Amino acid sequence: MRIDELLKGACERLTFISDTAQLDAQLLLAHVLGVSASYFYTWPEKTVSDVDIERYNALLVRRELGEPVAYLLGHQAFWTLDIEVSPCTLIPRADTERLVEVALSLLSTESASRILDLGTGTGAIALALAAELPRSNVTGVDLVDDAVALAKRNAIRNRLNNAAFKQSSWFDALKEDARFDLIVSNPPYIDPDDEHLSQGDVRFEPKSALVADNHGLADIEHIIHTAPNFLSPNAYLVFEHGYDQAQAVRERFKLAGYSAIESFQDLGGNDRVTIGKWVL
């Protein structure tokens, strides 16, 4: 079968389950054939072998069932990096790049800063910061051993040696005298009763990385109250949070004694990142 015919049929199959059906179809076929997506525009008339069609159809079936493309490919682009992904943790998303942008605006590229990423998952945030701040030392922690191993592989994959990862329940495994110039986190922030947990890609992602008690704010509250023990004077704590949680996060920052509290919008115009400065 010709490439253009195969892609047309795949796109029709995926239209009802994906808002990016054409892109999904191209990415999966490129993965099977070991080519870039631009190949399809150059050689639409090339034929695909029966073996590759069978492999492609197997991936399309999994996508039709809702499995995320990133899990099917085994990797995901984030910032300037290529990040290995697995079902042990969340898939890095474009909106989270806003957290990286905000974090970078708070530090100088010339400074040798110490940075902590809480709930690092794939290590995407920590590694993006490490790539942009080569003089800095970045530590990423995660409760899940498999996620820590994955983050370490991503450091090697992207040739970054100024980021280290360890298993920890938030701050628990850190030394008591550890101090950081910046702490960032994309913690679980979805309400356990949120109907979106049964829809789309998140059905395949670990609930432990998505859900938090107290309407999704429990982990954010814990980090806000514990972080001052690990923040240097005038250092910032930076969160990604739900689109409707910015006011609640700002209020909790204020009650805990932070200053310079501010929220920033994501690509969709929603408040997605909030910062607070620890002055004491």
Automatic annotation (TrEMBL):
Domain Methyltransferase: 111-251
Keyword Ribosomal protein listed: no
Keywords: Methyltransferase, S-adenosyl-L-methionine, Transferase
Residues holding substrate: 186-189
PROSITE patterns: N6_MTASE
Record has Metal-binding as a keyword: no
Ranges of residues in domain Release factor glutamine methyltransferase N-terminal: 5-74
Enzyme Commission identifier(s): 2.1.1.297
GO terms, molecular function: nucleic acid binding; peptide chain release factor N(5)-glutamine methyltransferase activity
Ligand binding (S-adenosyl-L-methionine): 119-123, 142, 170, 186
Gene3D superfamilies, A to Z: DNA helicase RuvA subunit, C-terminal domain (1.10.8.10), Vaccinia Virus protein VP39 (3.40.50.150)
Catalytic activity annotation: L-glutaminyl-[peptide chain release factor] + S-adenosyl-L-methionine = N(5)-methyl-L-glutaminyl-[peptide chain release factor] + S-adenosyl-L-homocysteine + H(+)
GO BP term, pick one: methylation
Known role: Methylates the class 1 translation termination release factors RF1/PrfA and RF2/PrfB on the glutamine residue of the universally conserved GGQ motif.
Similarity comment: Belongs to the protein N5-glutamine methyltransferase family. PrmC subfamily.
PANTHER family, per database record: HEMK METHYLTRANSFERASE, MTRF1L RELEASE FACTOR GLUTAMINE METHYLTRANSFERASE
Protein name from the UniProt record: Release factor glutamine methyltransferase
